[in-house]
Amino acid sequence: MARERVMIVDDEESIREWLSIALKKEGYEIKCAENGEQALELYKKDRFDAIITDIRMPKLDGLELLKEIKGLNPSANIIMTTAFGSMESAIEALRGGAADYITKPFKIEEVKLRLEKIMESERLKRENIYLKAVLKKKEGEKKIIGKSPAFMKVLAMVDKISKSDSTIMIYGDSGTGKEIIAKEIHNRSNRVDRAFVTINCGALPETLLESELFGHKKGSFTGAIKDKAGLFQVADKGTFFLDEVGETSPGTQVKLLRVLQEREIVPVGSTSPIKVDVRVIAATNEDLEQKMDDGVFRKDLFYRLNVIPLRIPPMKERRTDIPLLTDYFLKKYCTKMGVPLKKISSGASQVMMRYSWPGNVRELENAIERAIVLQEGDTIRIGDLPEKMIQETPKQVFGSLKEKEKEAIASALEETAWNAAKAARTLGIHPSTLYRKLKRYGMDKK
Ligand SMILES: Nc1ncnc2c1ncn2[C@@H]1O[C@H](COP(=O)(O)OP(=O)(O)OP(=O)(O)O)[C@@H](O)[C@H]1O
Ligand SMILES: [Mg+2]
């Protein structure tokens, strides 16, 4: 990571040197200027995360410098150092947009603390901007599709719970859309302008997970060279999505419970808690009741999370959504790959309608994407679908042909009042073939 850059502006050389040595030791990159004019020149040429400036200086003084820099960059962080007793200029500085002020003579600790505060808030700002950008980008390309009764129930529930701050527990098999629903809840909430932060509880080792979630103090473990804000702080006033919460280790479960109860976090290596305002949405594809019985998931945590349970039905409970999702993904991936929109043959859509979809919407999405890549013509046929799907469904697809055949035979017999010879002729088959079929299907005159 690039080091944070600080400019020190003071007409007294001893102060510049003393500050610069002390702050370099903290890991900052330092530039110095003797007066406002020089400082302004430097500022125009370079990027600085913070500026510490004296007020009384020859040429351009601190207050004028503040005005000039704020004119160039309204979000510049400027700390003023003022002589003891000159409260008015301190107030003027704050009015002019200074981030902070320190009264001289000051201790180096004071400067460090104020700088750290500024850098931390800058980091949070950056992370927020980044997360929002990620969110916006994804939002653009992701729509929620589904009109089946089972899915409409989910959407109605989403509508009802989005505006509240209650904790939500989303249940659903893998690929059913737990994450897309969690985001939808965030997007429809009053927190939409704040971060939506996702963490996969199963993907990180316990020590890392804790410091990711709660942050850490400098020196709390090897490699912790700076204080670091936890994701719960990044998510402040926003939404926190705890994905695969069933995978959380016992130690982290205790800490999560604490956040949910107290609404505060304690960074690793710290003793002072920090208040956070987050809405928590958790998700799992596991049987948490079973995990509780096995003693690997805490009951108290479960009840804290399970305030509003929301179950996303598997694909096989909402088959009428299959054609809608198929069309949606066809459009999405044909556009993405810059090829003309492909159709899907009726055989292929029958296979899709009958398949069991253990991987749910994600499996369907992948199947369509794959078929578009493989199929060079304009129609996706059975053969373009994954082997597994074809193997699972042929009996049923041809079963439906069988049904059609039976129907045709039955109506031919009805038309001819069960005259098999005539019926065979209308069907365009040999009478002996008809007899064989009648026997196979067990069809008798009633
Ligand atoms: N109703 C839907 N409409 C459109 N796309 C959907 C829908 N449901 C899921 N998807 C898409 O399917 C994929 C899987 O969804 P998502 O990641 O939300 O599922 P999940 O339940 O979190 O899965 P996992 O358990 O594997 O983490 C994503 O690409 C998502 O955009
Ligand atoms: Mg997921």
UniProtKB/TrEMBL annotation:
Keywords: Activator, ATP-binding, Cytoplasm, DNA-binding, Nucleotide-binding, Phosphoprotein, Transcription, Transcription regulation
UniProt record, GO biological process: phosphorelay signal transduction system; regulation of DNA-templated transcription
Pfam families reported for this sequence: AAA_lid_14, HTH_8, Response_reg, Sigma54_activat
Domain Response regulatory: 5-119
Gene3D superfamilies: 1.10.8.60, 3.40.50.2300, Homeodomain-like, P-loop containing nucleotide triphosphate hydrolases
Compartments where located: Cytoplasm
SUPFAM superfamilies with a match to the protein in the record: CheY-like, Homeodomain-like, P-loop containing nucleoside triphosphate hydrolases
GO terms assigned for molecular function: ATP binding; sequence-specific DNA binding
GO CC terms, sorted: cytoplasm
Name assigned to this protein: Sigma-54-dependent Fis family transcriptional regulator
Species of origin: candidate division TA06 bacterium
